[in-house]
Amino acid sequence: MGAQTLVVPGNFPIGCFPSYLTTGVSDKEAYDPITGCLTKLNEFSEYHNQMLRIKLNKIQELNPNVVVIYADYYNAAMQIYRSPDKYGFTNGTLKACCGCGGPFNYKATERCGDVSMILCDEPDKYVSWDGLHLTEAAYKLISKSLFQGQYTMPEFRSMCPRPSTSQGIGKSSI
What we know:
Elements: E1 5-9, H1 18-21, H2 39-62, E2 67-71, H3 73-82, E3 98-99, E4 118-119, H4 136-148, E5 152-153, H5 156-159
Parallel strand pairs: 1-2
Antiparallel strand pairs: 2-5, 3-4
Helix pairs in contact: 3-4
């Protein structure tokens, strides 16, 4: 029988992650003026996602009885980087919550949990947990955007319609 429904995630905007931002790029033009993210790395993520979607479309064509859903992690996350205050990320989008100082609070040789690490007081106000991973608050917003919003192709909403309120949850109209 095999899998009937596959969800395949795209890549995040890696140019916004503290682990990449600390690579030492000094050219101001390398950074997006709105988000502060590294433009070339985000373009690379977008290219990867474009190629992935082409391959997923081919897989869908070869397997018409299988549902292939592309999860657009890139754009679901970029909404946060473009408008952090709108989503409650008031302590910055590019600085890690758990780190060891510096402009992005990230150092590749140190790990969150080490004695030298500084932990922020309000992780839900940060996008990045440790420079490599997002915070629970960021993942929550992204997952909500995927499952209830426009960041999957096809949209989950079109595949899993909610029951009408007149019937109630779990009640059949039969």
